[in-house]
Amino acid sequence: MDKIRIAVIGVGNCASSLIQGIEYYKRNEGREPVGLMHWDIGGYKPYDIEVVAAFDIDKRKVGKDISEAIFALPNCTAIFCRDIPRKGVRVRMGKILDGFSDHMRNYDEARTFVLAEEKESSKEEIVDLLQESGTQILLNYLPVGSEQATRFYAECALEAGVAFINNMPVFIASDPEWAERFKAKNIPVLGDDIKAQLGATITHRALADLFRKRGVKLERTYQLNTGGNTDFLNMLNRNRLVSKKKSKTEAVQSVLAERLDAANIHIGPSDYVAWQNDNKVCFIRMEGRLFGDVPMSLELRLSVEDSPNSAGVAIDAIRCCKLALERGRGGALYSPCAYFMKHPPKQFPDDEAYRMTEEFIAGLRND
């Protein structure tokens, strides 16, 4: 089968984990495929994904082969697949806009942002590269708060005629106007804000759904997260968090029996702890009432490597998007979006979203 040709915006920890994973499962074919939701989607295996273009704005990555750039500072995720073969894909200088926060210049070398000196790529140059490289799907891995930059690259995808997977919380697939623009051009779009394979939001949703199904009245809850990667450092600028908090909060609110007042629900990034690197620690507390109006509470601590957790979902989202391309299905893909994303065009309980996605993969539904 043909390769699934992707381009990535932002060669950070998440892109590193995804590219390592593609090579890892290629080397380990025939063994038990640990860590995958699906080994085969529509005939495509994990290693059938090929990166053909990449964009970044950090000088330690721009100009390097993608196989080298994924291990450059300030990346700090786990290295579980070393010696990635050279891909012949040079990381190009992207468009800056609001793609980084000024406060990130003021940290030690392992965390600081170092702006590349190369001239920014224009929309025309980016569109040309996407078309010349044969890109089929463009993945957005920009930092939280990159509102202008995300819309810029979504425009590039539309102009180049390539599908768009929006892994971060700027609302594209879930914005009716943007979704309609992709539908009008018969181009698939997935988004917004990728769920982790087993992370804070999916765990919180599962617990909230359990409360609802077991008749427990949830009265208040919080989710606090700490981490030491550049994502958490970026989010110290609270002005960049509006969409992120909305995305994470709505993901939990949507599965509750009754929506909580804003004062009784707090979900969002909490603090940056440098020595945690790409390890994310989540604290969840839920307070409610059982039979006879008797109070109860639940507390959970979850520790995960953040970026492989994202890649475990992205590798399926890419293959589902490829199926949509083959089937001539444009616009927002409601089933995969609901299962893979925190802020999809339409929210469904996770068990229903799972069933819908399995039907989509099997060709029993096309939305």
Notes on the protein architecture:
By secondary structure, this protein is of the alpha/beta class. Helices cover 34% and strands 19% of the residues. It is built from 11 helices and 11 strands. Strands 3-2-1-4-5-6-11 form a 7-stranded parallel beta sheet, sandwiched between helices. Helix 4 links the parallel strand 4 (137-140) and strand 5 (163-166). Helix 1 crosses helix 9, helix 3 packs across helix 4 and helix 6 (200-213) packs parallel to helix 8 (242-253). The model has no long low-confidence stretch (mean pLDDT 95).
Short description:
Helices cover 34% and strands 19% of the residues. The protein is of the alpha/beta class and 367 residues long.
Which descriptors would you attach to this protein?
11 strands, 4-stranded mixed sheet, 11 helices, alpha/beta, 7-stranded parallel sheet, 367 residues
